[in-house]
Prior knowledge:
Layout: E1 2-3, H1 10-15, H2 20-30, E2 34-35, E3 45-51, E4 59-63, E5 70-72, H3 73-76, H4 84-89, H5 92-104, E6 108-109, E7 114-116, E8 126-130, H6 134-139, E9 149-152, E10 158-159, E11 174-175, E12 178-184, E13 200-207, E14 210-211, H7 212-216, H8 224-227, E15 233-241, H9 242-245, E16 249-254, E17 257-262, E18 279-284, E19 287-293, H10 301-308, E20 319-321, E21 343-348, E22 352-357
Parallel strand pairs: 8-20, 10-15
Antiparallel strand pairs: 1-2, 3-4, 3-7, 3-15, 4-5, 5-6, 8-9, 11-14, 12-13, 12-20, 13-15, 16-17, 18-19, 18-21, 21-22
Amino acid sequence: MIKAAGFLHQDQMRFLGISQLSLRRLNAVFSAGTVRGTASSAAMRLVQFCHRGGEGGVRVGVEQAEGQGVIDLKAFNPSIPSTMRQFLEMGQNGMDCAKRALSSGQHVVPRSDIRLLSPVTGPEKVVCVGMNYKDHCLEQNAPIPEEPIIFSKFPSTITGPYDDIILPEESQEVDWEVELAFVIGRKGKHIKEEEALSYVAGFTVAHDVSARDWQMKRNGKQWLLGKTFDTFCPLGPALVTTAALKGKVENTKIGKRQMLYLIINTSNISCQTDVHNLGIRCLVNGATVQDSNTNQMIFQTEKLVAWVSKFVTLCPGDVFLTGTPPGVGVFRNPPVYLKKGDVVECQIDEIGSIRNTVV
């Protein structure tokens, strides 16, 4: 937590070139006491869930905080649709309703009473990016791509953050890949890179489970079949809205004291985490097998949105998997693959973790 009191002295503000107007805005932001260093007024953790008893079907909710109770948006407002894709199609009206629901603190469902589903189900597209981490290219002695390498998974691969991964009889070489994923929030084509983040609803954790024999040796070495077995795309636990993750928190030094300051513009103040500077890890049976940072991404979110939208129209609910860091099983010596009973946990700082058992 960042305390308001003593956060910045006025002489420090002047040193940074921040106006008295901005100072008053900063004081207003912190007047409530404390704020989290990775949140803004629009930051939310959106989820899809169902009640453990099965009643009510699929619902869209917003977490009070990571791992805490979930506000049922349809209970708060009966006009809210039941799926995340339909909710995102509502645009800003849906987001505004979710904010009001979160502020109300009403219609909270205890976490123990629900089962979290993938934040998005039934998207029109699942867009994947290959060879998009510098350190992943290095581990296989591959050149850095000059343009994004795009492939796909069928939407039927998507499963929940804690659901089982089914090991197919057709493959003996099933591998792990932790990935940062993002979800499109509004329709667009030929999107400009500088406007791309406004088309992104939020970010989540993905596991791009991969059958290496089918990806690298069979099917003409086309990647699709090796990537698209049922349950080969766990997602979750929540869709963390872009407002929480699109900016940066920076450090500077004044004399011998190190301080944290916010990027301030003329309209608002927000304290955000840079989504392209987050720790990203994969653990198999508790042992870390991948450990990197999203700052290793070659083509970042804005570039990917702009690039893919040259070819296809992006629609609310479309899922992008942005590539994996080094440490996958196929490039180990000897190679290591998943087996029944293995437990795979994929983690990304500030977003969360998903945990899936191989069966």
